[in-house]
């Protein structure tokens, strides 16, 4: 059944053979606030980085309003309407504070 919103199906992601996500399926229905909770290292940021185009999943797929979405870059995710605010300050050291504030 098509979901109005963002759907992740069967996402897996490993780093150097260490699994961060294993077969994760999750819906983000349009118009709802969805909270993702889990212990440190559970894979929350990895999931968000896949949605945001920072990482490619090893397996699984994303659909936005029923259309397959394959963000290969953060720009692709932005173009699809996905905005990510980093958990930790992610600064670019060689530009000014003001330029860091307005990144993205
Ligand atoms: N770029 C990376 N290279 C290697 N391992 C990584 C990388 N990113 C995440 N991991 C590993 O993947 C697992 C999931 O990490 P992730 O940062 O997604 O968890 P989290 O749920 O966001 O944790 P926290 O609550 O501490 O923010 C951890 O074992 C982490 O060490
Ligand atoms: Mg995190």
């Amino acid at each position: 059944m098509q979901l109005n919103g963002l759907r992740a199906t069967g996402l897996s992601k490993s780093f150097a053979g260490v699994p961060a996500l294993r077969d994760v399926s999750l819906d983000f229905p349009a118009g709802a606030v969805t909270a993702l909770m889990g212990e440190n290292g559970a894979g929350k940021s990895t999931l968000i980085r896949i949605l945001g185009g920072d990482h490619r999943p090893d397996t699984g797929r994303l659909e936005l309003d029923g259309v397959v979405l394959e963000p290969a870059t953060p720009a692709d995710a932005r173009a699809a309407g996905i905005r990510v605010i980093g958990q930790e300050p992610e600064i670019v050291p060689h530009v000014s504070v003001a330029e860091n504030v307005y990144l993205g």
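The chain has three helices and four strands. The two ends are 34 Å apart (CA to CA).
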